Amino acid sequence: MTKYHFPMAIAIGGAIAGTLDLTQACLLFGWDIPLSIAGGLIGQRAFHGGAWTYALGVLLHYFIALSFAGVYYAASRRLRFLVEYPLICGLIYGAIVEEVMNLVVLPLSALHARGPYTLHDLLMGLSVHMVVMGLPIAYSVRRFRS
Question: Exposure winner among 84, 91, 109, 113, fewest CB in 10 A?
C-alpha cells in the first residue's frame, strides 16, 4: 500500500459521510443545524452567532465525520473483516456512531444534550447513521485499502 491510501480512505469516506449526514440533518431539522453543532463547543451563545459560528459548526461536523472514518480505518488494519464485509460492518459501525454520539459526545458537549429520546427518534437516528455514516466510511476504506 502506498502512503496515500490511508489519507484517501479517511478523507473520501469522512467527506461523503459528513456531507450526507449534514444534508439529511438540515433537510429534516432546518438549516441552522450547524449552529447547534457549534453549540456543542461554545454553548448557548452559538445560537446568536453569525457566519463564523455557522462555519465553525460545519467544520466541527466534518472533523467528527473524519474522526469516525479514521477510527474505522485504524480498526480495519487489525480487523480484516471490516474490509471484507463492508455492508454488514458499515451498517453496524453506523449504529455505533449513533450511540457514541448520543451516549458520549452529546452529553459531554457544552449543551449537555441527553435524552430521554422517543423510540421513533432512536430508530430514525440509528437507521440514518447506519446508511449515511457507516456505509460510506466502510466502502471507502475497502476501496482505498490494499
Answer: 84
What's the pLDDT tens digit per position in 96-111?
A: 999 999 999 999 999 9
Instruction: Collapse the DSSP code of 114 into the 3-class scheme (helix H, G, I; strand E, B; otherwise coil) and give the result.
Output: coil
Total number of domains constituting the chain = 1
Distances (CA, A) of 5 to 9, 12, 57, 120, 145: 6, 10, 28, 39, 6
Burial category of 19 from C-beta neighbours within 10 Å (exposed 0-12, middle 13-18, buried 19 and up) = middle
- What pTM does this model have? 0.92
34 near 57, Cβ under 8 Å? yes
Indicate whether 4 pLDDT > 80. no
